[in-house]
Amino acid sequence: MDMQFVPAPLVTDPRRRLILFFFLMTAMFMATLDNQIVSTALPTIVGEFGHLERFGWIGSAYLLSLSAVMPLYGKLGDLFGRKYVMMTAITIFTVGSAVCGLAVSMDTLIAARVLQGLGGGGIMVSIFAVNADLFEPRERARYQSYSSLVLMASGAIGPVLGGTMSDLFGWRSIFLVNVPIGFIVLAGLAFMLPYRKPHRRPKIDYAGALLLAMTTTSIVLATDSSELFGALISPQSVGIVAFGVICAVIWVFTERRAPEPIVPLQLFRNSTFSLLLVISIMGGAIAIGMVNYLALFLQTTTGLSPSAAGLLFILLTGGLVCGSLTAGRIISRTGRYKPFAIASLTCSATAFALLSQVHAGTPIAFIGAIMMLHGIGIGLAQQVPIIGVQNAAPARDVGAATGSVTLSRMGGASIAISIYGAIIASGLGTVGISIPGVTDIEQLTPKMMAALPEPSRQAVADIYAAAFSPLFMTSCAIALIGLVAAIMLKPVQLPRAGETEKPQAATAEAAE
């Protein structure tokens, strides 16, 4: 494949494209918000249904099914055309939301969350793939940066919105609100999005899809085993890991023989694809995986209230917006994405190295500046892996490649969340000293902490700061692994619409 022709955009009228993009972003906001919005409403739900031991599953069930179906949707879009695959995903998500809102017990709620995730995974993948059809590679960078902002906005707004809505209208409203939005988006896509028929007859690799789903599920369950089974290494978690490894090995053999594999293994022959997957996994670990721990860190070591800690996140989101918009504009002008991957991971590695040295009593302004630096870092490379693989993959495999990147980002986040949790737990578990007024340090809420006498509050803050230091060193190491992968990327230049790639770049990619 010496030359790769860039197909013309699916919709040529710029106004219609913008309206379509708005509908796509609404669907994406709905799917990503749903993971965040539940967090603040969980105590209310547990208060109504009981079963505190299943508390974690309301979030995990959604993430698990979301991750498991992502690669399948990317493939289905390549085979059947993106329009109807995306509309099916939105329908499944909307039905799942309605069932969640009408749930009568904890079990029905968890089952409905699985159904929601089956739709949500399709929305996430299809949106990036439809964007690839709507915009030419240079312009795509700019619009992909807007998609990233929607992802981050849902992360920032979700907890606040979830708390407010469950206070005013009851927790069921946070699910039921998706139903009218889902119908509006479906109507918009039905009338506005043209159907581009793929030029091949589909053969679906069901065995590959099932094996990949079981592998990703095993990874997420294994990393959550300290919560699920009480210890990170237990007979159950070892069994899950062994099962995951067996599924992964069988999956590779299945994909080699499949006529239409879920993730075409020849994509891995291209070093650009493999390196961008590594960057995506590390990016998910330090961006998505870190959010809850940064909130915990701020509330325990600085004594800030949840709302004041939330204000510091505005700095992080502000940095992210600046980084993302700047990178999107410059990539669409120059067509080069490698420098942004390097700059991004350098910023994040520096931010975590500085955070690991923060002790209780460090000025808030200094911590705020570090968070802003980390935000700029995440923003700079937010869209790099997706743009990069969409350019490196042959046109017939764009959906599968996009699905792989989105899945690897979520996978990186899920695994990192569990690793970070284990580091904090071991840091707090080794504390031998007893603090006046504190029976169990892990049960302290920010409100209880504020009520402690000053010496006790200071002692708790010091213990937490010491426990967080190895966590930040770990995330710094994760960022450095990503940085090495970024430095190894080829200096590819993105083509413009209707243009053929520069032969030397295309030949280099094909030779891999």
TrEMBL record:
<keyword id="KW-1003">Cell membrane</keyword>
<feature type="transmembrane region" description="Helical">
    <location>
        <begin position="463"/>
        <end position="489"/>
    </location>
</feature>
<feature type="transmembrane region" description="Helical">
    <location>
        <begin position="417"/>
        <end position="439"/>
    </location>
</feature>
<dbReference type="InterPro" id="IPR020846">
    <property type="entry name" value="MFS_dom"/>
</dbReference>
<keyword id="KW-0813">Transport</keyword>
<feature type="transmembrane region" description="Helical">
    <location>
        <begin position="146"/>
        <end position="165"/>
    </location>
</feature>
<feature type="transmembrane region" description="Helical">
    <location>
        <begin position="54"/>
        <end position="73"/>
    </location>
</feature>
<dbReference type="Pfam" id="PF07690">
    <property type="entry name" value="MFS_1"/>
</dbReference>
<feature type="transmembrane region" description="Helical">
    <location>
        <begin position="308"/>
        <end position="328"/>
    </location>
</feature>
<feature type="transmembrane region" description="Helical">
    <location>
        <begin position="228"/>
        <end position="253"/>
    </location>
</feature>
<feature type="transmembrane region" description="Helical">
    <location>
        <begin position="110"/>
        <end position="134"/>
    </location>
</feature>
<feature type="transmembrane region" description="Helical">
    <location>
        <begin position="171"/>
        <end position="192"/>
    </location>
</feature>
<feature type="transmembrane region" description="Helical">
    <location>
        <begin position="364"/>
        <end position="381"/>
    </location>
</feature>
<feature type="transmembrane region" description="Helical">
    <location>
        <begin position="20"/>
        <end position="42"/>
    </location>
</feature>
<dbReference type="InterPro" id="IPR011701">
    <property type="entry name" value="MFS"/>
</dbReference>
<keyword id="KW-1133">Transmembrane helix</keyword>
<feature type="transmembrane region" description="Helical">
    <location>
        <begin position="273"/>
        <end position="296"/>
    </location>
</feature>
<feature type="transmembrane region" description="Helical">
    <location>
        <begin position="85"/>
        <end position="104"/>
    </location>
</feature>
<keyword id="KW-0812">Transmembrane</keyword>
<feature type="transmembrane region" description="Helical">
    <location>
        <begin position="340"/>
        <end position="358"/>
    </location>
</feature>
<feature type="domain" description="Major facilitator superfamily (MFS) profile">
    <location>
        <begin position="20"/>
        <end position="494"/>
    </location>
</feature>
<dbReference type="GO" id="GO:0005886">
    <property type="term" value="C:plasma membrane"/>
</dbReference>
<protein>
    <submittedName>
        <fullName>MFS transporter</fullName>
    </submittedName>
</protein>
<keyword id="KW-0472">Membrane</keyword>
<dbReference type="GO" id="GO:0022857">
    <property type="term" value="F:transmembrane transporter activity"/>
</dbReference>
<dbReference type="InterPro" id="IPR036259">
    <property type="entry name" value="MFS_trans_sf"/>
</dbReference>
<feature type="transmembrane region" description="Helical">
    <location>
        <begin position="204"/>
        <end position="222"/>
    </location>
</feature>
